[in-house]
Structure to design on (292 residues):
């Protein structure tokens, strides 16, 4: 597959998963400032964080998005959140910090304050969202700092502490260990092993199957990838992501017929006319390329 076609396929895939970015957004709570997610640090009750600690490793990469007035506002809200005793007020202050971080488009700060909020309201959902936000921040970062991927794993582990049977968190830890292996200084197989453990517990876990299929593509194990995706689709025939990845596999193997068939199946699941048009254009370009 040419790089141009590959980019188009990735854009279609982005359309499949773009809603995941909404996890950054706080849920609305009355008309104050949305509720949200989670939070960070281990113990910050009753004391302020040291200067510069609040932005840590992300400062240099996102420095141009925060001016001195922004930093002052963050520091004031954070100091108040650290000192206030009332839980609801503390949560609303973290909501404000999360919303502010979203507006300034600083993903590591979104993750940090969702983690802080989770420590105030420690639920599986909140810690899971904190982990997801750290993972998104890691993926979006050009520098790929260890602190972000480690933050994701730490929060997923807190989910498992609350519920050892939470396979979503276990799968997320596996994926994080594979994608963050270089930053963490571990072998990718550590994460693959965790994903296989999830499948041992739940052979029909579509999330684990899809991720294992994706990583099989990355390592050139196309037959294994096809097997994983087909198993996932036998369990969940509406898994759009699996269809897109299967298309990638078939086109990488120059199996144009199956690649187009898979795209057509994916298109049948889509309601968005813009995405349908993208798929039609992509199919047309594949055919033109192979007829030339």
């Amino acid at each position: 597959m040419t790089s141009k076609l590959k980019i188009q396929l990735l854009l279609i895939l982005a359309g499949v998963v773009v809603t995941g970015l909404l996890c950054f957004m706080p849920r609305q709570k009355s008309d104050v400032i949305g509720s949200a997610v989670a939070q960070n640090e281990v113990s910050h009750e009753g004391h302020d964080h040291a200067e510069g600690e609040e932005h840590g490793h992300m400062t240099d990469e996102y420095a141009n998005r925060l001016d001195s007035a922004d930093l002052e506002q963050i520091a004031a809200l954070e100091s108040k959140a650290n000192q206030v005793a009332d839980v609801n007020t503390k949560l609303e202050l973290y909501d404000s910090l999360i919303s502010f971080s979203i507006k300034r488009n600083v993903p590591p700060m979104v993750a940090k304050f969702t983690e802080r909020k989770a420590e105030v309201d420690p639920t599986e959902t909140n810690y899971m969202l904190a982990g997801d936000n750290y993972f998104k921040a890691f993926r979006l970062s050009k520098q790929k700092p260890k602190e972000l991927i480690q933050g994701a794993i730490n929060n997923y582990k807190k989910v498992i502490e609350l519920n050892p049977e939470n396979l979503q968190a276990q799968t997320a830890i596996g994926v994080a260990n594979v994608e963050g292996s270089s930053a963490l200084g571990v072998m990718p197989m550590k994460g693959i092993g965790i994903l296989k453990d999830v499948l041992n517990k739940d052979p029909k876990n579509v999330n684990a199957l899809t991720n294992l299929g994706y990583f099989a593509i990355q390592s050139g194990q196309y037959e294994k990838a096809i097997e994983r995706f087909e198993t996932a689709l036998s369990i969940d025939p509406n898994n759009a992501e699996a269809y897109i990845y299967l298309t990638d596999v078939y086109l990488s193997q120059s199996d144009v017929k199956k690649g187009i068939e898979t795209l057509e199946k994916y298109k049948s699941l889509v309601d968005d006319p813009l995405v349908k048009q993208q798929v039609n254009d992509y199919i047309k370009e594949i055919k033109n390329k192979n007829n030339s």
